[in-house]
Design a protein that fits this description.
Layout: H1 3-20, E1 52-54, E2 57-62, E3 65-72, E4 81-89, E5 99-108, E6 113-114, E7 120-123, E8 128-135, E9 140-150, E10 153-163
Antiparallel strand pairs: 1-2, 2-3, 3-4, 4-8, 5-6, 5-9, 7-8, 9-10
């Protein structure tokens, strides 16, 4: 056997032994793609408060429509999937009519980009929705928007969440 062949075999054995040794680095499973359970605990930093907070729900009134939301888990975790529950209410107490679509998105205006994934918004009647699969991959200020299609036009409720 030539010296060149022995060198190649030695290199292959060295790599094989290093990769199979007990101290070899093994990548941890990526939890970012795991679904978030309702009420799951998180040790992520707290988020900024919105206009009004009631039992974990925040709310904002836009064009005569009350938009309420709560993140699950709360606080919003850094670089892990989370969901938003969304409720719509009429300030007069009556039903919310004319809503046919809702969508949720978030962006970082200071950085000029949005999330690395698109959330799926699932409507539950005309007054409730669940946005699934949001992910804030960086610390900083995120502008979140809930867009509601009602009576042939879009209404947008926006607020800021800050992750530190």
């Amino acid at each position: 056997m030539s010296g060149k062949s022995l060198a190649v075999i030695g290199s292959v054995l060295l790599v094989a032994v290093a990769c199979s040794s007990p101290g070899a680095a093994t990548p941890a499973p990526d939890a970012a793609d795991a679904p978030v359970a309702d009420g799951a605990a998180s040790d992520a930093p707290a988020t900024a408060e919105a206009e009004s907070v009631t039992k974990g729900w925040r709310e904002k009134t836009v064009e005569g429509l009350i938009v309420r939301w709560r993140p699950l888990p709360d606080p919003i975790p850094l670089n892990k999937l989370f969901n938003l529950d969304i409720e719509l209410a009429n300030p007069t107490g009556g039903p919310v009519d004319g809503v046919t679509q809702m969508r949720v998105d978030a962006k970082m205006p200071a950085h000029g980009h949005g999330m690395t994934r698109q959330a799926q918004t699932i409507m539950d009647g005309s007054e409730r929705a669940h946005a699934v699969g949001l992910l804030f991959h960086m610390v900083g200020e995120w502008e979140v928007s809930v867009d509601v299609y009602r009576d042939q036009h879009w209404i947008s409720a926006k607020w800021t969440e800050t992750l530190e």
